[in-house]
Amino acid sequence: MAEAVTGGSGLRFEMDGEIATVTLNRPEKRNAQTFATWSALARIGEDLPEQVRVVVVRGEGPSFSSGLDLGMFAPEPEPPAQHPEPAQHRGTERVPGTDSFAAAAARGDAELRRLIAEAQRGFLWLRRPDIVSIAAVQGHAIGAGFQLALACDLRIVADDVMFCMKEPALGLVPDLTGTKPLVDIVGVPRAIEICLTARVVGAAEALRLGLAELAVPPDELGRAVRDLTAALLAVDREAATATKRLLQGAPQRTLEEQAAAERAEQAARIRSLFAGS
Length: 277
Ligand code: ACO
Hints:
- The protein has 277 residues and is of the alpha/beta class.
- The protein folds into 2 domains: 2-73 and 102-233, 2-enoyl-CoA Hydratase, Chain A, domain 1 (Alpha-Beta Complex); 237-274.
- The protein is built from 10 helices and 10 strands.
- The chain has a 7-stranded mixed β-sheet, sandwiched between helices. It has a 3-stranded mixed β-sheet with strand order 6-8-9.
- Strand 1 and strand 2 (11-16) form a beta hairpin.
- The two termini are 38 Å apart.
- The model is unreliable at 84-92 (pLDDT under 50).
- The structure holds acetyl coenzyme *A.
- Residues 29-30, 32, 62-63, 66-71, 140, 142-144, 166-167, 170, 172 line the site of acetyl coenzyme *A.
């Protein structure tokens, strides 16, 4: 198994054949996330080896992720001359202008949006049709942690899971690509209720709402993910990619359009499998 620690981001990346595992690896801070985490996530997506078919996203320790690093709410850091290592005390590499919301707010509107887009890039690749992403979620999945789980195709949770969309309670909106999958899964009214109350959604409710595919005791989480991964890898790769593409497009299409998309994908499959045989 090849392993890489993406320096300072709080992430660990491992490869095992067709399986890639991304681990949030700051358990002492309950895997709080920073801009460095999201930049590193984006880089992992960009550089993902072609052989990868399943990406597992997991968190080290008792919590999947406590969300955004609360250090972001601190006043603007002093200039480097007075504080030569402004971010290192939090164990994160420095991404200029991202240490605090105060520093980010000092940027122009366009620049601020570009910064958020850069963070979102870390989440968006997890929906690529050529991979299946699985979030293995135990304990707290708060804010950015909930959104990272929502960015994945599938969620396997431990019985102790606590999803919470805390952003509105902190004066923010969920902006790490989580609102669309949340609404797609639970519908607008339930999404409003969950986000605007910032309440906890536990395992039983997550299963009922479709926010989790499976809930297991915490010590069985790893095995449940391995079993699911093995089942996913047993299916033909090209067929899996084409089917995921079809399913992802279905909500935006009419029945007739979806039928046409099925014809196009199947014709390509049949040609690929049987032409010249
Ligand atoms: N950012 C920075 N540090 C954090 C964070 C965080 N989001 N969450 C936990 N920590 C740190 C704590 O300060 C503590 O550090 P210390 O040991 O140096 O004092 C350590 O992680 C352990 O935290 P505890 O609170 O002791 O752990 P516990 O398991 O009791 O509670 C919980 C975990 C519920 C996650 C709690 O830490 C918490 O509520 N954290 C804040 C959650 C939050 O508001 N996140 C922002 C969401 S909004 C968004 O993501 C956009």
